[in-house]
Amino acid sequence: MKFKHYLTAIDQVAIYPLFSLLLFTIFFGAVTWYVFSTHKTVMEERAKIPIQ
Amino acid sequence: MIEQFTYDNRIVRNFAYATVVWAIVGMLVGVLVAFQLAFPQLNLGIPYTSFGRLRPLHTNAVIFAFVGNGIFTGTYYMLPRLMKTPMWKRSLSNIHFWGWQLIIVFAAITLPLGLTQGKEYAELIWPIDIAIALIWVLFGINMLGTILTRRERHLYVAVWFLIGTWVTVALLHIVNSFSLPTSLTHSYSWYAGVQDALVQWWYGHNAVAFFLTTPYLGLMYYFVPKAANRPVYSYRWSIIHFWALIFIYIWAGPHHLLYTALPDWAQSLGVVFSVMLILPSWGGMLNGLFTLRGAWDKVKEDPVLKMFVVALTCYGMSTFEGPMLSLKNVNAIAHYTDWIVAHVHVGALGWNGFLTFGILYWLVPRLFNTKLYSVKWANTHFLIGTIGILLYAIPLYWASFSQALMWKEFTEAGQLKYQFLETVTRIIPMYILRSFGGTIYLVGAILMVVNLWKTIKQGSFVPEEKAEALPLHKQGVPATYTFWHAAIERKPMRMLVLSLVVVSIGGAVELIPTFLIEKNIPTISTVAPYTPLELQGRDIYIREGCYTCHSQMVRPFRDEVARYGDYSKSGEFVYDHPFQWGSKRTGPDLARLNNKYPNSWHYRHMYAPEEISQGSIMPAYPWLIENDLDTSTTKAKIIAMKTLGVPYPVGYERIANNDLVIQGDEIRMDLAQNKIITTNTKEIVALIAYLQRLGADIKKAPEVETKKLH
Predict the structure, then answer these.
(1) Containing H/E element for A52?
(2) Are A9 and B264 within 8 A, CB to CB?
(3) What is the Cα–Cα distance from B688 to B538, expressed in whole angstroms?
(4) Where are the beta strands (DSSP E) in B352-460?
(5) pLDDT tens by residue, B421-479
């Protein structure tokens, strides 16, 4: 699988995939940051909701 | 100040019954169409039972009737319990239930009648489409009403999946269903050619994502912890899982159109995001499986947990296979073959089927306040169901590899080694095996029906379940709720809007460029609108579901160009409402059919395919020979096409039928020379006119767009 092939194919409209990738990365980063900065006990409490 | 309230179990029971009934119906039709591929006599020679009409019935029944009712069964059970409040409006629940069943019944009547829009998984005619949208909105209102009147501050992750599902399915269904009616039962897709294909597969792929996957992940996040009686392995993962999945899934549609006339950048975009999809998918699968950590002794005993384990494993398998299939070099082999059929069935039989069975085995005894009638039978069901899946999938993998390799094989002299038909007759034993696989799976499901029936008989129904909780405004707000995401989790409307934004970005970036930038679809000067007779013939082609077995899309491969002719260009399809590229080659591609065979060949072939091509598995279409073409529709169809931008001359709708008769006469006279006596307005004449038109325009084209052959 030559990944280079895709990059050259995308070239003219590079803005679309780049924009989307950037957007996703920012969002993904923010969610990850939130998830791991929340205290463990809070998460455990929430996970227990269905089996209460 | 604790409040008391009850959960309504009737609606859950009704949806559960509907799930079971439609499961059996959908699978029965599936088994029939599977056997039809090996034994074409099973098409019975009548229109209503021919493969092209029953295959959409099978897919629609399984997706929207079986899985759809499965989603609602789970939702109406878990949502009130997670929100600690009854469903918002009982009347809405009931309208939803009966409305949805009515839609299914109408689908089951219209599809065998040949009333279809001719777009895969979106075949249902426009009045039914509107009914689906209305019922879906009512369901959403009821769901949001429940969430807004809840007594539990935090929205558990299963509920996010439901919200994301609801908003995305609404968006997909409405955008893809845009069409212009010509009568109560017929309409033309708003989009044409490449755009139609892009919208359709953006829809088609996300129907898999947001109808078969995200709602079932919601059910998984509730019922797996519930059945194992332990919390989900990692709640952190589940949050990442949700956002990553809905964000990425929406982009992946174009992987259904690799090597087609779709612009390269859109294909590449689809590939990149499809490959990325494996991360959240596997994260979710592992989260589900790890929930059972330390409970494997239970898994050995409990058929419910066993079903869940196989469901999650199949989910993992098909979400590994999906990204792999979207790699261009794998796709070059897999596309148009039975690999795709095997892939979706691992998902449908394994993931959706087994998760539903597990939920039903867990749920029905609780609704009827009893124990499962026979755990042993359920274990047997688990065993034969698993064997059924394997016996279904493995022969099809085998068939697809051998057929794709045969398609691509050349002799030393540089000729194609195999005729198309040879590659079909070679894999028929595999078709028979997979039909048995499907039958065994169905037998397992019937065993479940009996088991559940006996369970219901021995128990007594609990129509209302009592519960109590503190109202939300009496509960203190924990100090930890300060993060931005926590604010979303408490605000369902914000969650809904953000989900919509997230999926809209993907949809918009994927669709807008093709709609706005004209140069993306270069026009070809010789491509002209269909004549009235060809247009009518095309509608017969769509009615009979020819696209379920024939593609109209030659990819730029050496073997395809050698077998069919010049590869397809995006400019060829500008008047195709809807596009008919197809997704499976049970029969050969038809994009370059023009003048390949004489009219008389088509006539005889449609009447009795097997007499013309020995070993052909194509159904016979004797009714096309008998039926008179309904020319009263021509005017409305031409007007609709003009509205959609097809350049017929001013006032052409008034004289269109004259041209239709003239062209019909030419074909009639040509047939007469070959000792075939017919009239100029039989359906077969229109169909022949259309088939002879396929690929005719491009032959006249002066300019040549060149692409490297693969």
Answers:
(1) none
(2) yes
(3) 10
(4) none
(5) 999 999 999 999 999 999 999 999 999 999 999 999 999 999 999 999 998 888 876 65
Burial of B338 (0-12, 13-18, 19+ CB in 10 A): buried
DSSP assignment letter at B692 = H
Check: CB of residue B65 under 8 Å from CB of residue B26.
yes
> Would the ipTM clear 0.95, i.e. be above it?
no
- Do the Cβ atoms of B243 and A50 come within 8 Å? no
CA distance A33 to chain B (A): 10
CA distance B347 to B314: 6
Look up residue B624 and give its two tokens: 């096309």
Q: Fill in the amino acid letter for B507.
A: G
Burial call B136-172: b when 16+ CB within 10 Å, e when fewer: bebbbebbbebbeebbbebbbbbbbbbbbbbbbbbbb
CB within 8 A of A23, min separation 6: which ones?
B505
Q: Which of B147, B153, B239 to mutate to test the interface with A (most CBs of A within 10 A)?
A: B239
In order, the DSSP letters of B101-132 are HHHHHHHHHHTTTT----STT--S-HHHHHHH
What gap in Å lies between CA B360 and CA B188, rounded to an integer? 40
Give B485-529 pLDDT, tens digit per residue: 666 677 777 777 877 777 777 677 666 655 654 445 667 888 899
d(CA B553, CA B564): 10
* Cβ atoms of residues B433 and B395 within 8 Å: yes
Q: Please, which residues have CB within 8 angstroms of residue B426's CB and are 6 or more apart in sequence?
A: B402, B403, B406
Pairing of strands B3-8, B464-469: antiparallel
Using a CB–CB cutoff of 8 Å, tell me whether B161 touches chain A: no
pTM: 0.92
The dihedral through the CA atoms of B279, B281, B287, B289 has a sign that is negative
pLDDT per residue as tens digits for the range B659-705: 999 999 999 999 999 999 999 989 999 999 999 999 998 888 765 55
DSSP-based three-state secondary structure for B651: coil
Q: Judge whether residue B236 has pLDDT over 80.
A: yes
Closest CA to B231 of B272, B288, B153, B183: B288
Min Cα distance A22 → chain B (Å) is 12
Optimal mutation site among A22, A24, A52, interface B, most CBs of chain B within 10 A: A24
Which residue's entry shows tokens 């379920």? Answer: B548
Closest Cβ–Cβ partner in A10, A23, A47 for B265: A10
Residues 6+ apart with CB under 8 A from A37: B483
CA A23 – CA B341 distance, rounded (Å):
34
Q: Interior CA angle at B458 toward B454 and B461, to 5°?
A: 105
